[in-house]
Amino acid sequence: MASEPVNGAQIVIKALLDQGVDVVFGYPGGAVLPIYDALFKQNQLRHILVRHEQGAVHAAEGYARSTGKVGVVLVTSGPGATNAVTGLTDALMDSVPIVCLTGQVPTHLIGNDAFQECDTTGITRPCTKHNYLVKDPDRLAKTLHEAFYVARSGRPGPVVVDIPKDIQFADCPYSGPGNVKHKTYRPQIKGDAGKIAQAVDMMAKAKRPVIYGGGGIINSGPKAVELFTKFVKTTGAPTTLTLMGLGALPASDQRYLGMVGMHGTYEANMAMHDCDLMLCIGARFDDRVTGRLDAFSPGSKKIHIDIDPTSINKNIAVDLGIVGDIASVLEDMLKAWKAEKKQTDKKAVASWWKTVDGWRGRDCLNFATNKKVIKPQEAIKRLYELTLDREIFITTEVGQHQMWAAQHFRFEKPNHWMTSGGLGTMGYGLPAAVGVQLGNPDALVVDIAGEASTMMNIQELATAIQYRLPIKVFIINNEYMGMVRQWQELLHGGRYSESYSAALPDFVKLAEAFGGKGLRATKPSELDDTIMEMIAYDGPVIADIAVDPKENCFPMIPSGAAHNEMLLGPADEAEKPVSEDGMVLV
Amino acid sequence: MSETERHTIIALVDNEPGVLARVVGLFSGRGYNIESLTVSSVSVDESLSRMTIVTSGTPMIIEQIKAQVNKLVPIHAVHDLTAEGAHLEREIALVKVVASGPERRESLRIADIFNATVADTTTESFVFSLTGKPEKVDAFIELMRSLGRTEIARSGVVGIARGAKAL
């Protein structure tokens, strides 16, 4: 495959194109100038100039999660790389495939504290799936293709390729993506047949089964999502999804109980607690899901399917762990179910459903509306109802609004919900929306935001303006870092230390200053019109929705409590004070 | 909670820059113990290194450590010598003992019992070289400490499975 010599910068462009990349999110600087020069000389690869490198990674995450492709980032050395660290950590925690190219000072200057030098591979080692420093021109093309392979294979994640400036100028040989065969990294795709048979048998015998699905289903791909829905239908088991898994099963499915975990539904958490068999598919028993570990689903046998062997038996010891790709394992499970003519214990499962429906009857997401002030839940519910006929992608920031969005926005399809789950990165949603809109130019993209989070990456509004990306920033403005305020109310005697959003900008004027449209609603009567106006406008919008500042997010499992100890509303809060053990938990 | 166990784990890794940092960073980042860690190139073409890691934790943590190390991209294989059956563990210690009179004579006598060799001597000191299981090295060092001022250098444990099967 060797052809005429080209320099490293050109190799980078060629490798990206051969990997099917059509858009790169980046920010130029001294150590990546040759690559920017190569970008300038071609028309196939589109570069999106962000306003901060953190925004570049989040945009690439939004792009990756909404399209199923690898997101690509290009930043310079030193501060370019360190600014990307939060985004890389976010992508690692939420298993998002990212390839981040960082410029580096020339190889002969590495270690000399050169201008804009930092130990990029050292800094990003714990916050990437893998990283590379390319010191040999012969290795550049191979390394780039390997980076894509590692980023998207197995449990996806971010990969950094650090490219010194002299390598970008050096003559480098090129080899195509097909020539890469990894010598060590080969994730297990097919699940163990014996274990699959055992899992099917356990599922058929269960009297009170629960299926607990996570983001791994969506990461596995459309086939996995389809098979997951089929498996839920075949077994008829009550099914709950994690924050990352929303959309893996249509929210309208009768078997869907809503989200599990700290702000999940009462029925989902009670079912998790009281089940006799838990089938966990592509989720990782995160502490926001399990609550108190020693009281987590005490009476159940647990099966865990995951492509990442480290996820199994990490937080919760399970009875049966199956390592493999979810699409492959579910396909084999459905085959085994059919071949062995398995039947669920219909009578027992019907009686279990009766119990579950009893919990459903508590209507835990219910909230009191008010004529004078907009309730945050109402704002999200109306946004959902008024956009039902649209293809809509939702991103969020982090906090109360994020949990309300997860509760009240109902997703029928995967890849339409982008939120920072593992790391909980405020400032994720706006740049993520930029990436989502680029990947889905004709869709409606809304960042359900809080006023505090919005301020963390507000500069990316300029990116949206520059590229005419009509994203909507829907601010649930309660003038507080609401989740912090809620915890201070529950755990710290209502001492609202530094959680008030003082000196907020006028978001309407702010949107206008950037060149977008600003809207505001302060009364319930204005809500629908504001939403409709926001949707109708062909360009970036900030809609500032002034909501009840004192509203808390319920239901809630207080920290240190078990699934069956949920607070359902403000009345519960007074009755069940949080334990001292719970206070030290995050 | 289950009991803490001591395990000797070996990892075959690509002999490339940063691979040791990946493994060590994983242990420190996730709060695992390292009692000792040795690493050296072991293949003819120097492309592979072998690490022997002695660690401790509950059975769940030990399983997690092995899975986490195995997940690192440049890792070829991970083996838990402790779990996989009969194996050998050896360590080298260089022990300097500064002593005179009866203590000096006693140190030489004990070295003889332990099959330690004298690697260096002055009129007031010895450097003993000792190879053996970690427990034997521990015992030797403890005895030497009672005889005078000591300085200790230990290699950490290297391990290999018994029998004809080679990795």
Description:
- The complex is a heterodimer of chains A (586) and B (167).
- With 586 residues, chain A is an alpha/beta fold.
- Chain A is built from 24 helices and 20 strands.
- In chain A, helix 6 (140-152) links the parallel strand 6 (130-133) and strand 7 (158-164).
- In chain A, helix 8 (193-205) packs across helix 13.
- The N and C termini of chain A lie far apart (54 Å).
- The model of chain A has no long low-confidence stretch (mean pLDDT 96).
- Chain B is α+β, with helices and mostly antiparallel strands.
- Helices cover 32% and strands 41% of the residues of chain B.
- Chain B contains 5 helices and 9 strands, in the order E-H-E-E-H-E-H-E-H-E-E-H-E-E.
- In chain B, the strands form 2 sheets. In chain B, strands 5, 6, 7, 8 and 9 form a 5-stranded antiparallel beta sheet that branches. A 4-stranded antiparallel beta sheet of chain B has the order 2-3-1-4.
- Chains A and B meet through loops of A and helix 1 and helix 2 of B.
Mean pLDDT of chain A: 96
Tally of contiguous helical segments of chain A: 24
Major beta sheet of chain A, specifics? 6 strands, parallel
H/E element order of chain B: EHEEHEHEHEEHEE
Q: Segments of chain B where pLDDT lies below 50 for 5+ residues?
A: none
Radius of gyration of chain B: 19 Å
Global shape of chain B? elongated
- Name the helicity range of chain B: 25-40%
How many β-strand stretches of chain B?
9
Question: Given the C-alpha coordinates, what overall shape of chain A results?
Answer: globular
Q: How would you describe the oligomerization state of the chains in this entry?
A: heterodimer
Secondary-structure-based class of chain A equals alpha/beta
* Strand arrangement in the largest pleated sheet of chain A: 3-2-4-5-7-6
Largest sheet of chain B: 5 strands, antiparallel
